[in-house]
Amino acid sequence: NAGVMQNPRHLVRRRGQEARLRCSPMKGHSHVYWYRQLPEEGLKFMVYLQKENIIDESGMPKERFSAEFPKEGPSILRIQQVVRGDSAAYFCASSPSPRGVTDTQYFGPGTRLTVL
Amino acid sequence: GNSVTQMEGPVTLSEEAFLTINCTYTATGYPSLFWYVQYPGEGLQLLLKATKADDKGSNKGFEATYRKETTSFHLEKGSVQVSDSAVYFCALSDSTGGSYIPTFGRGTSLIVHP
């Protein structure tokens, strides 16, 4: 069984460009979580989505960031007009359960975004 | 709000040494506690967990005991190996308010030398 897949693994963007990060959850998982890991810091929750719905976006910056999880295809985290402070590792996790119990979250390898 | 505090790294040990990584927490409810491990270039993997006071989680020689009186969940291993070199994250999950979104510590890097 394939695990959680993220692509690209590394992404370089110049200031002002857009970054699109993709996450394919494990087969049978319909709950997706996005986290951001800044250098020397732990993971910060960003958003929790189910198919076609945003359940909790309390960790998302109010501007430039958006996320979706369409009926078909991967979940997308989109960052518009990137700035240097957006440079970080972005992790996706998926879960089969409706409550997002932590021990059933399976993490992808992450996308490392570098903004020049 | 909830928070997790871990000892700063890196922790550098020789192979077969005893490991302790300290973790303390604050939470509004009755949290579950977790340790995750992140190997270089990979995502987080659940290492062990404990869901109530005095529970001991264990896996791959690692163990941690949920101490409610000291609000701690220290990670220990009796004899580390080079392959244990990784970053270790302490986390809590609190169902207060119906949300299980976890809170992570900053991570502690472990370096084990042969």
Main beta sheet strand tally, sense and closure of chain B:
6 strands, mixed
Approximate helicity band of chain A: under 10%
Q: Radius of gyration of chain B, rounded? A: 14 Å
Number-wise, the strands of chain A total 11
Radius of gyration of chain A: 13 Å
Distance between the termini of chain A: 36 Å
Number of helices of chain B: 0
Query: What does the average pLDDT of chain B come to?
Result: 91
Name the overall outline of chain A: globular
Number of helices of chain A: 0
Mean pLDDT of chain A: 90
Taking the alpha carbons of the first and last residues of chain B, their distance comes to: 41 Å
Task: Classify the beta-strand content of chain A into a percent band.
Answer: over 45%
Instruction: Give the number of DSSP strands of chain B.
Output: 12
Please provide the ordered H/E string of secondary-structure elements of chain B: EEEEEEEEEEEE
Helix content of chain B: under 10%
The greatest interface between two protein chains, and residues involved on each side, is: A-B, 24 and 22 residues
Structural class of chain B: mainly beta
Description of the molecule:
The complex is a heterodimer of chains A (116) and B (114). Chain A is mostly beta strands. Helix content of chain A is 0%, strand content 48%. In chain A, strands 2, 4, 5, 6, 9, 10 and 11 form a seven-stranded mixed beta sheet that branches. In chain A, a hairpin with a 5-residue loop joins strand 4 (31-37) and strand 5. Chain A is globular, with a radius of gyration of 13 Å. Chain A starts with a strand and ends with a strand. The model of chain A has no long low-confidence stretch (mean pLDDT 90). With 114 residues, chain B is mostly beta strands. Chain B is globular.
